[in-house]
Structures
1.
Amino acid sequence: MYDLPEQFSAFGEARQKGFLTVKSVKEAGGMVAGVFCTFTPLEILDAAGFLPVSLCGMSDEVIPAAEAHLPRNLCPLIKSSYGFAVSQKCPYTYFADLIVGETTCDGKKKMYELLGKLKRTYILHLPQGEDPNALESWTKELRRFIAYLEDTFSLRITDEALREAAHMRNRERQKRMRLMELMKLDPPPMRGEQLASVLDGAGFLFEAASREAKLDSLAEEVSTQYVAGERPVSASDKRILVTGCPIGGVLKKAVGLIERSGGTAVCFENCSGIKAAWQMVDADAPDIVRAIAARYLEIGCAVMTPNAKRFALLERLVDEYRIDGVVEVELQFCTPYLIEAHPVREWARGRELPYLGLETDYSQSDAGQLSTRLEAFLERL
Ligand code: BJ8
């Protein structure tokens, strides 16, 4: 088995260790913003001097606490996120001066109302689809958010600071893309589970220059070892594209199982993977707020109606990563993605690509059943 470079572990531990950084930022008088979604315009929070931190819940340990207020038949990501807040088990939520939510799926929207009773919460009203007014209304919404931050926290957000933040976030996205694009190699130079842990962990390395340096150094290390002949993944492994809901809470169960059953997840279309990184902000555009708005509207999430952007991206990724099969990971009760699974299945059929949909939650109770289905699927490829 591949000997992990030390850098992989640094990313793996970032989520646990990052709260010490957040604590010291708070002690030094800094401000922290908790965020949940890839649509959150990080550049605005950066330019305002906030440290943005993801609050997405990834474990089922706090779901019983959440179910005291929320229905059982709700997506585990929502229940876990709320559960961590209500049970005060998440240091990041504890330190947050502000929580930024957005109108995506109904479950999250309504959960934010409850969260607003625990913490100061601001809701961004995201346009719900590809209508001709979407860019105008999202740009106005971002200006309203800027005005809210300026008034509430007595600060000033300049265009210059927004441009600087856009350049910084673009650099980070490019570095994430560089790492993900290494998976185009055949056989790939690392396991998908390793890659996904790095992409998640990078979000908890809060100092931009050091985060960028670590992403660069990992890409260098992986490339150097590959050129030197290291082959951590068997050439006979099937190349799998993973799509669907965010996978942080089911990484080991879903991706780990794919990779123990004869496949490698070479491409993550999900949030935290390519969907969240491939589009850049035009940082030198005359209207920087509009440029930020335009960039975020390119995200092909199933909460959008219609969601043609997801299919355009999938189409491109299948060729670029020479995909043998598609695995769609659906979190239970996620209406937008569960309904969009049908057109994704139809699209895969049209491309003559084997497709498997896995509906799961954060528990381990279905691990055996998923394993059997994945083994059968991968054997067929
Ligand atoms: S941009 S994928 S992070 S909305 S919470 S929709 S799993 S029922 S997370 Fe998401 Fe933003 Fe889109 Fe990405 Fe379903 Fe659960 Fe809703 Fe979810």
2.
Amino acid sequence: MADRPIILSLTTMHESGMNRLREAGELRMASSLDPAVLHREIVDADALVIRTAGTIDAALMDCGKKLRVIGRHGVGYDQVDIPAATERGILVVYTPGANTQGVAEHVFAMMIGVSKHFPGQMKALIEGRYNDRTKLVGRDIAGKTLGIVGFGRIGKRVGAIAHAGFGMKVLYSDVIDIPREAEERANARRVGFDELLAASDFVTLHVPLDASTRGMIGREALAKIKPGAVLINTCRGPVTDEAAVLEALESKRLFGYGADVYTIEPPPSDHPLIGRADLNIMLTPHSAAQSTESLRNMADEVSTDVVGVLQGKPPINPVNDPAEVAAIRAKLGKPPLDRGF
Ligand code: NAD
């Protein structure tokens, strides 16, 4: 069919989402993430679907002259040049909330795992040093103070679970006003960043990666962190300075570190934090949202939104302002988004 929209996807996803995209248009899988290849393959695409991989910059968008919507399967959209998309009249949609529970549970897996010395205990067991179990003394998390940096969807869920499930004292810092009900669900108290660092037994990061958060946990912040604290990063690698974290672990300023994300992804196998069970480091390969439930939610939400936009419906979860995008499209002489197919 001549007018079936072309959907270029850089990722596979849960079959329910793949099917929705296939029904709505011609679904093409990108053959590589190499920019030169993508520049060719995006030429006649009406929609682009992405996950965490791939840099979606102005140069790529300029090759996609027909592009009207970019759908991000997931939450952080730092790999997309949002201003460039807006300037070209391209809508960006994403899946906020789809993996909130999955990531929140991952945070507790790490908080508990690090507190109970899982890295060292598992290594000792594998290496036949069973009796070393008594050398590594862990801690319970109940009743401890949890500092949440970024009290958004995930931060709030983590706070609510910490309060209800473990009786933790919850502190948070954020840059926006937080509704009182959300604070009450976690019995959370807003504090300044420095106070949070100084008072928390656990610090967990839930901010987007942007200019305000890049490197926010560096040497300066780690010098202020409560001695013996556990640091958890499931948001974005560059929010922490990995070299400074390694120093803080070596000097025992930190009791342990849990991370799902890295400054460079994938991290090289000789990354200094990988394989350091001796420093009580628990790492996963950006897999916090890899639960059946999160994967299905993300696939359903991104495919529904991309297909809806292609069919002329208003976006459900836009990143950029649909009215601004529509106005820019009109100025550029591009077909309106509500034209439909
Ligand atoms: P969200 O937008 O609901 O919450 C982010 C919060 O951070 C907001 O309340 C915001 O005001 C706050 N914030 C922004 N800048 C800040 C700053 N400088 N200091 C303090 N607070 C600041 O997003 P979310 O759904 O909670 O997700 C948070 C981040 O987690 C995402 O941006 C994404 O990068 C990451 N994430 C990772 C995975 C994973 O697989 N590991 C999955 C989902 C999300």
